[in-house]
Amino acid sequence: MSNTQQSHVQSSDEVELSKLFGYILDGRWIIISITFIFVLAGIAFSLLSTPIYKADALVQVEQKSGGGISSLVGDMGDMFASESSSNTEIEIIKSRMILGETVDKLNLTTIAAPQYIPILGKGLSRLMGEEKIIKINRFDIPSYIEVSAFTLIIDDAVKGYYSLFDAEERKVLSGIVGELVEKQDYRLFVMQLNGETGDVFNVAKISRFDAILRLQRGLSISERGKQSGVLEFSLEGENKSKIQAIINDVTQNYFLQNIARDSAEAEKSLAFLQQQLPSIKEKLIISEDKLNNLRAERKSVDLSLEARAALDGMVRLEAQLNELTFKESEISQRFTKGHPAYKSLLAKRNVLLDEKIRLNNQVQKLPKTQREVLRLQRDVELNQQIYIQLLNKSQELSILKAGTVGNVRILDSAQAYSAAVKPKKLLIVVLATLLGGMFSVALVLVKAAFHRGVENPDEIEALGIPVYASIPKSNWQEKLDIRYNKKKVKHLETLLAESNPADLSIEALRGLRTSMHFAMMEAKNNVVMITGPAPNIGKSFVAVNFAAVIAKTGQKVLVVDGDMRKGYMQRYFGMRWDNGLSDYLSGKLSLEQSIQKSEVSNLDVMTRGQVPPNPSELLMTKRFSDFIDWASVNYDLVLIDTPPVLAVTDPSIVGALAGTTLMVGRFDQTSVKEIDVARHRFEQAGIEVKGFILNAVEKKASNTYGYGYYNYSYESDK
């Protein structure tokens, strides 16, 4: 890309940015107004919104091994050790098992609240200090009720009487605060009811499952830090005491179920051992009796050294096998049979069983009496050892159960914050301000993007129409129009050329007077038609004030209101609209009767007259062409104000007779397309538009065209 092209692109970008910035400057009052409305809305929302409070609690979930109990019960304590991740505990807390108890205890299936005016009522009631409170401890409805929405009305606020109505406004029951009311299948116990007589409260009953789901959605549980084991419970709501009670109940339920869960296995094992102890004791007694009876029969038979050694070995083996049986019961809860520890245990058992077979074979070699005594002695010692072992295990489990405290500890009970966490008033106002500013800027830019009004005379001249004058917008005229509508101004004061001759708009019309002198030099007559593409662009304002400016130079001027439908030129001169052009063309009045003298010297006026049914046909009559010829001879200048050319055909008829045609357009309102279409319509009628007048020009930051010639007011000293 060449340097010239780069500079052109850079210049284009600068122009576009400056134009966007100009649009924003031009629409500053729209931006300020909309932003101010958004700020007011943000302030109102923050004030009317119900304060939302937050309550939280802390619970620690420890990674529990046997601890001090392990030192007492050994491996038995490790068997019942618990270790849970925080995610697992959070899911347990949010289960229906835990939250369901809270829903039942605090009656969260009943929803009761005062009835307010929609949107604003609740906030206004709070700001006015009205205190409406309802607390229901029990509310039961029949199972066949489909719509569980009810209305409670206070009948007597002093005595506490109330009535309950169903969704169809049928009275269900009446009662008094503090007493249980039962009627048919309805049961209602209102614990607290604050309000005035006639106040209305909405009462609804939801299912237990829905209440649990609501609590699950509202309750927030998170772990503080990474793998800290400290869980934070939090809940938000309008009622401080209610959310505090809910969190306290949830944490307490979780704490109790944790203890119950940790002691359940120990209790189950203890019950099993206590069930086995009587049978083992009975076997021990039977075996002892048999041994004693044998010794009595054989007169105190003693075992030989070999038999005693075999007995000790067999008892020791049985003890080891029993110990392995207990260990296998414990290890099977942790590992599968394919685990190395489990395999080692099974191998050890096989070795002991082989040793037992060897000892049994050795015993078989002993004398019969020795074998008999040995067998009975073995049974007694084995049963005695098993019984003692079970007693020891039972004592260990009793200690474990008594010492179970769970691995959950409540660090901080629930406490509600004193200040509301929502709404964040300052943040809402700031966001509302930003949103209002962005919305208003976007609105201004979108409006500018779809803008069609002409702002630069160059756009008009690009169509081949010379711009004779750019008339600034007159603030003085706007004030006069307002006062005229309120009937607080005299008629002649509305004519700007008389009330304020030094106005910049009048100065621009004086410049038009010079341009018109050269434009009319080759015209066929001194008749000038002033027209425009569309209504409300200021044609009449230009026509009457330009006529006044010409008349003050000493020339005799006639200004004609050619808009026989909606013309209002008479207002500038304090005249009536009747007895004008339409009356003359229809033959009701003579030419002299139709023309009126104004209070401005050398300026005569012909108003529109009565509204005819056929204005275009009247303009095509010979009386109108004769009138043009007569006026051209008797006046130095004739100005005819016509209706919009895009609306009616009247301007095409008048323009054919007029020597000069001028088109008026309004700044920022009349589009280039409208001007082009209007000119094309005149060309089809054989009429040449001599020039263009851009009316009501305003100084805009987005407009690159400057009308600096009237940026400065050069007035005489006062």
SSE arrangement:
Blueprint: H1 3-26, H2 28-48, E1 53-61, H3 68-73, H4 75-79, H5 86-93, H6 96-106, E2 110-114, H7 121-127, E3 133-140, E4 149-156, E5 161-165, E6 171-176, E7 180-183, E8 186-194, E9 200-205, H8 208-218, E10 220-223, E11 230-237, H9 240-298, H10 305-331, H11 340-363, H12 368-402, E12 408-416, H13 425-449, H14 457-461, E13 467-472, H15 475-485, H16 496-499, H17 504-519, E14 527-531, H18 539-551, E15 557-561, H19 581-585, H20 591-594, E16 596-597, E17 603-606, H21 615-619, H22 622-634, E18 637-641, H23 650-657, E19 660-666, H24 672-684, E20 691-697
Parallel strand pairs: 13-20, 14-18, 14-19, 15-17, 15-18, 19-20
Antiparallel strand pairs: 1-11, 1-12, 2-9, 3-8, 4-5, 4-9, 5-6, 7-8, 10-11, 16-17
Describe, in plain words, how this protein is organized in 3D:
The chain has 718 residues and is an alpha/beta fold. The chain has four domains: 15-49 and 423-449, no CATH class; 110-205, no CATH class; 280-405, YheA-like fold; 471-699, P-loop containing nucleotide triphosphate hydrolases (Rossmann fold, 3-Layer(aba) Sandwich), CATH 3.40.50. Helix 9 packs antiparallel against helix 12 and helix 10 runs antiparallel to helix 11 (340-363). The model is unreliable at 7-15, 66-83 and 705-718 (pLDDT under 50).
